[in-house]
């Protein structure tokens, strides 16, 4: 719930006394943390000692111990900042401190309860109406290990008086919301609100679906939920893997510090452009092409591209056997291909079948008397043919192992693509698609688009995997058991690097978290459906911000991916990001795009409405002067690059505070001030343009400037009038 505005004055006497008391507790916790660190280091040393036994058992133990010790140390080391952030005082006088991890004293009594444990739930859930025996909730703010501020929340003032509990501070939430924004998202562990907490602690089974307007904390909740799941079912989710998917690479780097700050390092974060091994796409196709690629309309075309004879393969097979010339022409070879693929539709997996079919077809070309006269001839013929290097070479050329990237690049030739397209695509579509794939992906000269990633994944499925030669991925620890003496000691870093490699090839996950889910195309849902085929899910999104032109179609694709899993639905209703003035302005576009939608309430008023500016440079300068933190210039897709170079000198001079970003990449991000350049262009750029503009207008926490170059006499007017229309 909203709290009164925060005071910035120095702490008074009562507050100082309370702070000293809390400081004593925090000091004790940090001393204890140091002891825990010493124990972890001693445990690690013990692990290394075991390896000196020189047998396999010792090595296995060593490896397990060193790994576990390193995980503990990493978790303990990431907890310096704000380790203790809360305290609950109960009716019966019990005091419970809440923190990022659980810490116990030497008697095993809790000094701090982990925020994810059931005993901490009251910190987030207790309200004056439903107190859960809590009299006072205190938020403790620390810088490093130093207590700097307390904010109390009384749930039962009468009881507090009888327990002689002092009340200090005036609103941890407001203090958190008004702090300046930097390049990275912060955790919200000290101020998670009740409706958010319910979503964080939603059951680990089925699919938890979290909706809510801009700034309602959906991303924050999703990340805290990942930490919650890992804490409560560590074995299941650490070994099975938690995947977090965000819309863009910029977004992923914006959120990537949150889980480590909560002591969790094992979840895999990927953008939609990174869901396929070996591809890091960041570029978007223009809206019409993106829609074509995302809709599923290309599925039959991809199927045909995989099944067809690859261009450039030999059109004739020729061999001699006992003086007989055996020949198979192109039509016969095509027949063979069809027959083989009829039995095993994945060409990369079917090469052995193709080779057998080729031998069989060649055998049938021998004169009948030769085949009948010598009954054992068949086996000899088979071996003889397969042993020949020119036969092997032919098979490699006729039935090459292909990658998805090669097939898509092959479709970069309009004539080839037109053959596969048949009546599924018109000429203009063939031309546009071929142009978008021509020369892509080879040596990164021209990279694939984000919209190509699901097509590549689909192709990889259709092609199947070639039988793999054994490599070191198969046995992560094989190097540990070579020879009888200890040749080397694997460090924890080695093991994490190995585990990372294993993550890269992971084909499915135990839990999949999808952020900005409203934007996913049906084809992207198919990729996620495969990665999450055995997973439980958390899906986070806001239909009103959808960039996919047909939200119904996207929702249907999501239902297919989720199958018959039970749904747990949560709606977040408070916008914590935007000032009330900024959100009131942006909301007119939400109403235009989705008149029926329920919009969140913005809790913070600054008294400063969005402002209209004609000149981009002066709007940017003004924004930089008006706020302490970040400024985002948000443009249409087509003008981001030009705007970035136009503002290049300012970006360089602003020391990381100024970024230029297109409205699609701005998804999920936020800035203290936003300059939205040419809103009409953003709106007109795609069928979902009004929604995209709504996204752009809801990125600012404090100041919003609408910049319409050459917009004439309205010049520097504020647009408060427009807001209230
Ligand atoms: N309980 C909270 N305490 C402190 N800050 C909060 C809280 N909830 C949300 N915030 C802050 O509000 C801002 C918006 O949160 P977040 O980005 O998670 O919202 P969102 O719903 O994902 O927004 P969008 O849909 O626009 O991407 C962030 O700065 C976040 O830290």
Automatic annotation (TrEMBL):
Keyword terms of this UniProt record: ATP-binding, Helicase, Hydrolase, Nucleotide-binding
Domain UvrD-like helicase ATP-binding: 191-579
Gene Ontology molecular function, alphabetical: 3'-5' DNA helicase activity; ATP binding; DNA binding; hydrolase activity
GO biological process: recombinational repair
A single cellular component GO annotation: cytosol
Region called Disordered, residue ranges: 1-25
Binding site for ATP: 212-219
Listed Basic and acidic residues bias regions: 13-25
Gene3D superfamilies reported in the protein's UniProt record: P-loop containing nucleotide triphosphate hydrolases
Highest taxon, organism lineage: Bacteria
UniProt cross-references to PANTHER family, sorted A to Z: DNA 3'-5' HELICASE, UVRD / RECB / PCRA DNA HELICASE FAMILY MEMBER
Protein's name in the database: UvrD-helicase domain-containing protein
Organism in which the protein naturally occurs: Actinocrinis puniceicyclus
């Amino acid at each position: 719930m909203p709290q009164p505005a925060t005071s910035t004055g120095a702490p008074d006497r009562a507050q100082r006394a309370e702070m000293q008391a809390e400081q004593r507790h925090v000091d004790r916790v940090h001393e204890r943390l140091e002891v825990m660190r010493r124990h972890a280091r001693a445990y690690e040393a013990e692990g290394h000692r075991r390896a000196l036994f020189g047998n396999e058992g010792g090595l296995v133990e060593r490896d397990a111990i060193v790994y576990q010790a390193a995980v503990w140390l990493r978790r303990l080391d990431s907890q310096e900042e704000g380790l203790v952030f809360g305290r609950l005082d109960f009716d019966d006088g019990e005091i419970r401190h809440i923190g990022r991890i659980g810490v116990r004293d030497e008697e095993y009594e809790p000094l701090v309860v982990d925020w994810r444990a059931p005993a901490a739930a009251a910190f987030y859930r207790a309200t004056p109406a439903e107190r859960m025996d809590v009299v006072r909730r205190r938020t403790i703010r620390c810088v490093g290990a130093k207590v700097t501020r307390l904010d109390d929340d009384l749930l039962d003032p009468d009881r507090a008086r009888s327990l002689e509990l002092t009340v200090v501070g005036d609103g941890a939430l407001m203090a958190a919301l008004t702090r300046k924004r930097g390049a990275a998202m912060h955790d919200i562990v000290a101020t998670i609100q009740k409706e958010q907490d319910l979503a964080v602690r939603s059951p680990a089974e089925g699919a938890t679906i979290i909706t809510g307007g801009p700034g309602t904390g959906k991303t924050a909740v999703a990340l805290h939920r990942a930490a919650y799941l890992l804490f409560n079912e560590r074995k299941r989710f650490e070994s099975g893997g938690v995947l977090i998917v965000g819309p863009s690479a910029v977004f992923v780097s914006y959120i990537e510090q949150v889980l480590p700050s909560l002591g969790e390092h094992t979840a895999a974060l990927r953008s939609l452009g990174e869901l396929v091994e070996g591809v890091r796409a960041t570029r978007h196709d223009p809206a019409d092409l993106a829609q074509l690629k995302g809709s599923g309309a290309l599925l039959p075309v991809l199927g045909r591209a995989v099944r067809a004879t690859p261009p450039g393969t030999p059109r004739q097979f020729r061999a001699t056997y006992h003086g007989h010339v055996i020949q198979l022409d192109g039509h016969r070879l095509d027949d063979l291909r069809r027959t083989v693929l009829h039995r095993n539709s994945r060409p990369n997996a079917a090469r052995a079948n193709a080779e057998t079919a080729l031998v069989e077809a060649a055998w049938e070309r021998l004169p009948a008397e030769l085949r009948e006269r010598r009954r054992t001839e068949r086996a000899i013929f088979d071996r003889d043919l397969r042993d020949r290097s020119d036969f092997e070479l032919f098979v490699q050329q006729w039935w090459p192992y292909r990658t998805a990237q090669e097939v898509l690049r092959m479709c970069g030739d309009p004539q080839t693509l037109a053959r596969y397209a048949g009546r599924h695509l018109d000429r203009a579509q063939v031309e546009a698609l071929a142009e978008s794939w021509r020369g892509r992906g080879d040596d990164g000269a021209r990279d694939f688009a984000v919209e190509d990633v699901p097509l590549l994944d689909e192709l990889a499925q259709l092609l199947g995997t070639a039988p793999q030669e054994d490599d070191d991925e198969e046995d992560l620890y094989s190097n540990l058991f070579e020879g009888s003496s200890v040749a080397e000691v694997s460090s924890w870093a080695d093991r994490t690097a190995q585990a990372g490699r294993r993550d890269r090839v992971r084909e499915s996950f135990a839990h999949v978290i999808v952020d900005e889910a409203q934007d996913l195309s049906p084809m992207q849902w198919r990729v996620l459906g495969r990665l999450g085929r055995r997973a439980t899910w958390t899906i986070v999104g806001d239909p009103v911000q959808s960039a996919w032109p047909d939200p119904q179609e996207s929702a249907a694709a999501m239902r297919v991916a989720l199958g018959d899993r039970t749904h747990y639905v949560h709606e977040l209703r408070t916008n914590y990001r935007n000032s009330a003035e900024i959100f009131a302005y942006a909301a007119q576009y939400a109403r235009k795009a989705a008149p029926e939608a329920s919009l969140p309430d913005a809790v913070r008023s600054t008294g400063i409405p969005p402002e209209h500016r004609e000149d981009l440079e002066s709007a940017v300068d003004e924004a930089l002067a008006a706020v302490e933190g970040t400024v985002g210039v948000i443009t249409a897709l087509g003008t981001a690059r030009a705007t970035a170079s136009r503002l290049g000198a300012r970006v360089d001079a602003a020391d990381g505070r100024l970024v230029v970003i297109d409205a699609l990449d701005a998804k999920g991000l936020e800035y203290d001030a936003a300059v939205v350049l040419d809103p009409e262009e953003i709106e007109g750029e795609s069928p979902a343009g009004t929604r995209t503009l709504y996204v752009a207008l809801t990125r600012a926490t404090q100041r919003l400037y609408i910049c319409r170059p050459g917009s004439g006499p309205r010049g520097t007017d504020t647009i408060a009038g427009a807001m209230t229309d």
